[in-house]
Design a protein that fits this description.
It is found in: Cytoplasm; Nucleus. It contains five helices and eleven strands. The strands form three sheets. Strands 2-1-3-7-8-11 form a six-stranded mixed beta sheet, sandwiched between helices. The chain has one domain: Rossmann fold (3-Layer(aba) Sandwich). It has 241 residues and is of the alpha/beta class. The radius of gyration is 19 Å and the shape is globular. It starts with 16 loop residues before the first strand and ends in a 9-residue tail after the last strand.
């Protein structure tokens, strides 16, 4: 019996344009400016054309994403990748705009999918969400010591609607996300530090970001734990450096 051939590493082609959009509600979210500064430095270092919109209403979250999609589809050169950073107060599945109205994350994510954004079809779309996803607070627990493609020659190659997408949340479903009044959020600060100073495929870098779970945060005089959550439908390795 012959040994199976090793899988060949497939990478996303990152030779084209890289575009980023950040939508951030700063109202009643002290420390947001520190996060925006860190993201600006990261996008500049990684070669992204970056746009920032502060204090969008719920409707403007949707409108700015749709404008971003139109910009991408109209871009004069090939586009390799898009990042969308969403920062606001929130709950599970929703973000709160500057006007206190809610917008569904599902509606925002759909704007750049393979159906609605042709220029990003089969290309990586990365969403970074810094927002609460519920009201639970994690006190932590003590740790003891102790791609398959089936395509016939006669059929056209198609792609599912929701592939090549990466969702990176600052916290898991149902839990609060934390932010320091001056230093910004541990999540954004850790993510930008890792992306700027380490190399490797993005999912490996995000494994390093989740190590922020080792840190202890204090709120209301009590120690809290928090860890990001990563949801991926990427089909290839994505290298940013």
């Amino acid at each position: 019996m012959s040994n199976p051939r090793p899988l060949q590493e497939e990478r996303y082609d990152m030779s084209g344009a890289r575009l980023a959009l950040t939508l951030c509600v700063t109202k009643a979210r002290e420390g947001s400016e520190a996060d925006l500064d860190a993201l600006e430095r990261m996008f500049q270092q990684l070669g992204f054309e970056s746009t920032v919109k502060r204090d969008p209403t719920a409707q403007q979250f949707q409108e700015e994403l749709e404008k971003f999609q139109q910009t991408i589809d109209a871009w004069k050169d090939p586009v390799s990748c898009a990042f969308v950073v969403l920062m606001a107060h929130g709950d599970e599945g929703v973000l709160k705009g500057e006007d206190e109205e809610m917008v569904k994350l599902e509606d925002l994510f759909e704007v750049l999918n393979n159906k609605n954004c042709k220029a990003l079809r089969a290309k990586p779309k990365v969403y970074i969400v810094q927002a609460c996803r519920g009201e639970h607070r994690d006190l932590g627990e003590t740790v003891g010591e102790d791609q398959v493609m089936m395509i016939t020659r006669d059929s056209p190659q198609t792609i599912p609607t929701y592939t090549d997408t990466l969702h990176v949340y600052s916290t898991v479903e149902g839990y609060i996300a934390y932010r320091h009044d001056q230093e910004g959020s541990c999540f954004i600060q850790t993510l930008t530090d890792v992306f700027m100073n380490r190399t490797g495929p993005i999912l490996e870098l995000l494994t390093e970001v989740t190590r922020m779970a080792e840190a202890e945060l204090f709120q209301e005089g009590k120690a809290r734990k928090v860890n990001p959550e990563i949801q991926s439908t990427l089909r290839k390795r994505l290298y940013l450096q």
